[in-house]
């Protein structure tokens, strides 16, 4: 008996992928709403969902956390420094910096893990 193909598809979607889709698609929608352009809303949602699914497939949940922390911290700093008009710019900048920090942390953790595996008999 052949396995149910719908069951295989459901099992291949991980929790990290769903979180990535939610975070990145929401970001794309919010960018479109900020620009007040419905084409960007739709395109941002689709491209964000694809990017989020790809990052989630790599099981990079620490990356999502670093992006989220960077977004909130950047938005708060922008609000305190320049008022409400600066919040979208600083939130975007904070999320980019948070992403870079997250990638760097993952690379450092991975290089140490690789060194330990290499030394193991």
Question: Helix and strand layout, with pairings?
Answer:
Elements: H1 5-12, H2 15-35, H3 38-57, H4 61-82, H5 87-119
Helix pairs in contact: 2-3, 4-5
Describe this structure in words.
The chain contains five helices and no strands. By secondary structure, the chain is mainly alpha-helical. It folds into two domains: 14-59; 61-121. Helix 2 (15-35) runs antiparallel to helix 3. The longest helix is centred in the last third of the chain and has 33 residues, at 87-119. The model has no long low-confidence stretch (mean pLDDT 82).
What descriptors fit this protein?
121 residues; mainly alpha; 2 domains; 86% helix
Portion of residues within helices: over 70%
Number of strands: 0
* Count of DSSP-assigned helices: 5
Structural Rg: 18 Å
Structural class: mainly alpha
Uncertain segments: none
The tally of domains stands at 2
Q: What is the gist of this entry?
A:
This protein has 121 residues and is an all-alpha fold. It has helices spanning 5-12, 15-35, 38-57, 61-82, 87-119.
């Amino acid at each position: 008996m052949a396995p149910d193909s719908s069951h295989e598809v459901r099992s291949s979607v991980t929790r990290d992928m769903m979180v990535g889709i939610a975070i990145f698609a929401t970001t794309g929608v919010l960018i479109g709403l900020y620009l007040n352009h419905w084409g960007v809303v739709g395109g941002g949602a689709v491209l964000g969902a694809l990017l989020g699914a790809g990052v989630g497939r790599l099981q990079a949940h620490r990356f999502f956390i670093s992006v989220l922390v960077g977004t909130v911290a950047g938005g708060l700093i922008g609000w305190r420094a320049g008022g409400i008009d600066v919040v979208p710019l600083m939130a975007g900048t904070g999320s980019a910096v948070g992403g870079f920090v997250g990638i760097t942390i993952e690379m450092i953790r991975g290089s140490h893990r690789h060194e330990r595996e290499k030394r193991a008999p």
